[in-house]
Specification:
The complex is a heterodimer of chains A (112) and B (111). Chain A is built from no helices and eleven strands. Helices cover 0% and strands 52% of the residues of chain A. With 112 residues, chain A is an all-beta fold. With 111 residues, chain B is mainly beta. In chain B, the strands form two sheets. In chain B, strands 2, 4, 5, 9, 10 and 11 form a six-stranded mixed sheet that branches. A five-stranded antiparallel sheet of chain B has the order 1-3-8-7-6, with no helix packed on it. In chain B, a hairpin with a 2-residue loop joins β6 and β7. The radius of gyration of chain B is 14 Å and the shape is globular. The chains are: A mainly beta (112), B mainly beta (111). At the A-B interface, β5 and β10 of A face β4, β5 and β9 of B.
Chain lengths: 112, 111
Amino acid sequence: NAGVTQTPKFQVLKTGQSMTLQCAQDMNHNSMYWYRQDPGMGLRLIYYSASEGTTDKGEVPNGYNVSRLNKREFSLRLESAAPSQTSVYFCASRDTMNTEAFFGQGTRLTVV
Amino acid sequence: KNEVEQSPQNLTAQEGEFITINCSYSVGISALHWLQQHPGGGIVSLFMLSSGKKKHGRLIATINIQEKHSSLHITASHPRDSAVYICAVNPQRGSNYKLTFGKGTLLTVNP
């Protein structure tokens, strides 16, 4: 079982470049999430999608956009990357609000 | 003040020791999660609990809803248990699709 698959695993961008982080889950989960993890800050929610067709902002949405392409896929786009977006990004999914969460392996993004 | 506080932030133990990591939270919750993250690795769910106690192998998680407190215990610790352990809660109010995370406890188990 693949679970939650994120691509790419590593990426280096120059300031101002754009990129899309891809996330797919094969568990038929309704809810999907994008988090960033920074030293000393813990996991912070960027955007989430409670169900197919809906997306909502989390704690730190500025500089990001998302698309819930279908039930399986939830992508995160950086339109104009900034050094402050250097972080480790995690995608997660779960079925309903009181079920276990499954995480991808993470994407290490460096913006220079 | 963070809604979810973990202690200690860092913990070093010798192989075989009994480990306890604590999590306190300030809001009403519907569930609490314990997660594990190995260095440079992904995040794995260990437990989700809303009452009582759960056990999986050498890991035990307990929760006291009235005291808003949970503990994660590791018996007979091993160097492969070295990881960051993260507590997360599902708040009852607001959008309960969102988890609120603690900052994690870095556990190092020496051989």
